[in-house]
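ASSEMBLY PREDICTION REQUEST
Request ID: AP-0331
Submitted by: J.K., bench scientist
Number of chains: two
Total residues: 500
Priority: normal
Notes: Please return the full assembly, not individual chains.
Input sequences:
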Amino acid sequence: MREISIPISDEIIRSLHVGDPVELSGIMMTGRDAVHKWMIETFVKKTRQPTDNDSQVYEEIKKYLDGGVLYHCGPVVSGLDTKQYRFVAAGPTTSIREEPYQADVMKHFHIKGVIGKGGMGAKTLQGCAETPGIYFHAIGGAATFLAQTVQKVLGVYKLEEFGVPEAMWVIEVRKFPVVVTMDSHGQSKHSLLEESSRKVLDDLLARPY
Amino acid sequence: MRNLTDEILELIRCTSSSLPKDVEDRLRAAVEQEEPGSAARGALETVLRNIELSRANSTPICQDTGTPIFYVYYPQGTSTRKLREQIRAALAESTKRSYMRPNAVDAIYDKNSGNNLGGDDFPYIHFEEVDADQPLVIELMLKGGGCENVGIQYSLPDNKLGAGRDLAGVRKVVLDAVQKAQGQGCAPGILGVAIGGDRGSSYIKSKEVLFSKMGTRNKDPKLAELEERLTKEANEMGIGPMGFGGQTTVLDTKIMGMHRVPACYFVSVSYMCWAYRRRKMTVMGEGVEYD
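STATUS: Completed
Returned structure:
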C-alpha cells in the first residue's frame, strides 16, 4: 500500500486517483461541524467578530493545516482530568454536513486532504480540483482500530467551548488507512455510485409487486 | 430495592464495546461475498478487526456512542424513578470510563453536558410493566448519529415515487430510502420500518423493531416476505459497504405494522449502521445475565 506523509505536496495530490488505498502518517487535526462553522464565520466570510482566543487559535491551527489534513472526527478521549490525553476511539464522522463549508475552508487554509466518511458533493469536488486536494474515505465505525494509529495527542483547541467531540485535536498518526474516493481530477466514487444505484432503483420501482 | 448501577454500567460497557454475535456472524458472512482485493472487502475486514479489538480492549466499537435508548421491562411494584436514577448514574460513570463519548449537546446553547445526561429525554428510557413474578429486563441500543441522519419518513401516497397506500408503495419508499442513504449511514445497514401510526409513534416503532435479533421475521407472512424481498432488492443497488460499491448494502430488514388514522399513512425508516449495538440484561434474583 502507498504511504504518504503529511504535509502533502501538490505533486503527490495530483498523482492520486479515485480507488487508491493509502496510508497516511504525520500530524493532522480533527474538525467537524462546530469547527467548520466557526472557521467560515470568523475567518473566511468574517460575518462574526473574533472573540476570546479566536485569533490566537487561528494563527496556531494555520500551521498544521497548511499542506495538511483535516479529519472529520469526534473522538472518545481518555485522560481529560489529567490532560494526559489518549485517543480511545476515533473513526470518521459523516462528511456531507460540511458540504456548505468544505471547499472554502480547504482553499483558505491550503488543506490538502480531508478525511471523513460517506463522501461529499459537487462543491467540495470542485474545491479538490482547485486547491488541489483529496477526499480520503476512512472506514466508518472502525473507531478502536483507527485510534490505534494515533501515536500521540499533541494538543487541543476549543475543548472547553466546543466539547470533546467537536474540539480541534492535533494528533500524530502512523499508517492511518484510507481510500481516495474524490480526487483532484474531478472524479468522485460517490457521484458514480449515486448514478448507478439510481438506475437500479428506477428499474426496481418499475417492477410489479 | 436493589441498587443496579454497577450492573447497568456493565450493560453499557458491553453494548458499546462488544457487538452481538448474531450481527458479527452476519458481517463475517458478508465479507465472503465481496471480491478479494476490493475496497468493499477491505472495509469489511477492517470492520471485523475493529470488532475484535474493541471487545478485547473494552473500548467503543464506534466513537459515536450514539443516543442511548433503554427499554426497561420492570416487574409490577418496582420503582421506575429509582431505576431511572440508576440508569443515569451508570451512564455518567460509563462516560468517565470512556466506554461512552460525552454525547449530549444542548441544542439551543451548543453546550455539551460532558456526562451524557441532558434534560429528561437524554438518555431515552422507555418503561414497560410486566407481572410481579417476571424478571427485570433492561435492553439498551446505542444508535449513532450518522445512521440516524439518514432515517426518513414518508407520507403515502408519494407521487414522485408512484407509491400508493399499500405494501407495494411501502416497498418503493423503503428502496428509495436506501438509495438516498448511499454509504452515509455506515453501510451495510439494518432497516427498521414502521408502517402506520402518527409521525412520532411511527418513528419510535421503527427503532423498537431493531431490538430483535438478525433474521427475526415478522409473524405475518406478507410482511416476512416483504422483509426478505427488501433486503435482496436493496442489495441489487450495489452501494456496498461504506458506499464503496459491492454486494452487501443491507444486512437485514425488520418491519412492524401499526394502526393509523384514516387520513395518514406513514412509513418510517430507521437505518441502523453495521455497528448495531444492542444488549440485554436480565436480573434473576441475585444474578444478572447479559445477552
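REVIEWER COMMENTS: Chain A has one domain: 2-206.
SIGN-OFF: pending second reviewer
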